[in-house]
Amino acid sequence: MRRIETTAPEGTVEAGRQLARDLAPGAVVALSGDLGAGKTHFVRGLAESWGAAEEATSPTFALLHEYDTPRGKICHLDLYRARDTEEIWSAVHDELDASGGLLVIEWADRCPELLPPDAIRVAIAHDGEGRRMISIEP
């Protein structure tokens, strides 16, 4: 397990950039953490590193955002408002099946049955004044 401490949002973005360099198309990143922990900042780093033209934003109200990159499509799924796995699957299964790029799931702990066994698990926790502890488990 890798642990990273950040003291500002830019540090959380950089942690995402660093992880993205090691990810191959087809990878799944499962993010967990409280509201405001920095999950979307982390996704911004992933998307920037893969060369996305647009900045990643939280898909809380849309459920799914997609970003085209030179390395493949990034599907950014947010399960915060999801009620169950069936709802998620019926809403986004076409996009997820066709992705072939990177699948990033915020609030992944809400529907763990969606995660493949080889998902990379990233937990982001508040650790005092502006600090975040990021744990990455391959």
- Overall residue-averaged pLDDT value: 89
So how many helices? 3
> Could you give a short account of the major beta sheet?
7 strands, mixed
Question: Helicity range of the residues?
Answer: 25-40%
- Identify low-pLDDT runs: none
Strand content: 25-35%
- The dominant shape is globular
- Please give the CATH architecture: 3-Layer(aba) Sandwich
What is the strand arrangement across the widest sheet? Answer: 1-7-6-2-5-4-3
> What is the CATH third-level topology name?
Rossmann fold
CATH fourth-tier homologous superfamily: P-loop containing nucleotide triphosphate hydrolases
Number of strands: 7
Write the layout of secondary structure elements.
Elements: E1 2-6, H1 9-21, E2 28-32, H2 39-49, E3 64-67, E4 74-78, H3 85-98, E5 102-106, E6 120-126, E7 132-137
